[in-house]
Amino acid sequence: MTLQIQSDVSLKPFNSFGVDVKAQWFAQAHSDEDVREALAYCAQRQLPLLVIGGGSNLLLTADVRALVLRMATCGIRVLSDDGQRVVVEAEAGETWHPFVQWTLEQGLSGLENLSLIPGTVGAAPMQNIGAYGVEVKDVFVGLSALDRQTGELRDFDLAQCQFAYRDSLFKHEAGRWLILRVRFALNRADHLHLEYGPVRQRLSEQGIERPTASDVSRAICSIRSEKLPDPAVLGNAGSFFKNPVVPAELAAQIRQSHPGLVGYPQADGQVKLAAGWLIEQAGWKGFRDADAGVHRLQSLVLVNYGAATGLQLLALARRIQRDIAERFNVELEMEPNLY
Ligand SMILES: Cc1cc2nc3c(=O)[nH]c(=O)nc-3n(C[C@H](O)[C@H](O)[C@H](O)COP(=O)(O)OP(=O)(O)OC[C@H]3O[C@@H](n4cnc5c(N)ncnc54)[C@H](O)[C@@H]3O)c2cc1C
């Protein structure tokens, strides 16, 4: 038995909101064997299991009466390299940003736009993380996951993961699959995605006309550091709401009363609205109720000024959802996973 299981552990250091709730049981998995031990421990005691990575996409609203298993498995390996396309596999517990940096140091491009996203490799497919015009699905080739019900190890390819905007099969079948390792297809040549204006602008401010993948990563890190609060300083989970996708008629209707509406037409004819813009228009930017608030610069980011509980943050989120529904007839969906 290598798994160290502790009782009554504060999860404050293990969630980026810094919410202070306790795990009835807590352990860190450093190997597949640890993961299997945790599954057996829970099965024997009929105990629920909550798997976490970096805790940067969680809203914990009460003490967790379960075994909380933090994935801390390490390892990155090259599976194939044809001189151009390189398939890299990383263990679920690898921290995302250092992994991205490792790929760049190897001269591989593909993940640069996803620089500085908090969390772990194993959680990245959960909501198909995305930023600056790239999503994990764009470089994903496969993953290996354990079926928590049967203990069967299964490989998933791109199509089987059903990736969509901040969505995947693993979100739909929450609690079933435990992701052990993920595979990415990267490139020795730079295929850069510079569609996002601020990235181009930052590069040109730096006098960089022909950027490399590492230049793009650095530019994105500098933009993100200015834009988003650092969870180590101010508790948050990044964007709290997904950008809602609405019928074109509804977008046109909102635009009549709000000509500045920010919306992006989608391939299926619908329009993706900027949730942050809606929240800002409704006057929530900088709002604070006790220690739960809306960031003063980023309306999409809910923050914990120190002692907010998960329930207080949830209550604020629900107030914003109700207000946006009443004002714009738009339903906002929460991005973090609620426990
Ligand atoms: C400041 C900030 C900025 C952010 N920016 C972005 C962004 O630009 N784009 C974006 O997409 N997201 C962003 N996020 C959200 C977050 O970083 C990502 O969702 C990240 O992938 C979460 O990883 P994690 O390891 O912290 O997951 P956790 O929060 O620990 O877990 C998230 C969910 O995944 C499950 N899970 C975790 N690991 C596993 C596993 N190995 N197997 C099965 N299930 C698992 C958990 O049970 C939970 O349901 C941001 C968050 C913060 C705090």
Low-confidence stretches: none
The rough form would be described as globular
Oligomer: single chain
Can you tell me the CATH topology of the largest domain? Uridine Diphospho-n-acetylenolpyruvylglucosamine Reductase, domain 3
Q: What's the domain count?
A: 3
Q: Total number of helical segments?
A: 8
CATH architecture of the largest domain: 2-Layer Sandwich
> Which percent range describes the beta-strand content?
25-35%
Structural class comes to alpha+beta
Question: Any idea of the CATH class of the largest domain?
Answer: Alpha Beta
Can you tell me about this structure?
It is a single chain. The protein has 339 residues and is of the alpha+beta class. It folds into 3 domains: 6-71, Uridine Diphospho-n-acetylenolpyruvylglucosamine Reductase, domain 2; 76-187, Uridine Diphospho-n-acetylenolpyruvylglucosamine Reductase, domain 3 (2-Layer Sandwich); 235-338, UDP-N-acetylenolpyruvoylglucosamine reductase, C-terminal domain (Uridine Diphospho-n-acetylenolpyruvylglucosamine Reductase, domain 1, Alpha-Beta Complex). Helix content is 26%, strand content 27%. It contains 8 helices and 20 strands. The strands form 6 sheets. It has a 5-stranded antiparallel β-sheet, with no helix packed on it. Helix 4 (197-205) packs across helix 5 (213-227). The longest helix has 19 residues, at 310-328. It starts with 5 loop residues before the first strand and ends with a strand. 41% of the residues are buried. The structure holds flavin-adenine dinucleotide (FAD). Residues 16, 51-58, 71, 92, 117-120, 122-124, 126-127, 129-131, 177-179, 228, 231, 236-238, 337 line the site of flavin-adenine dinucleotide.
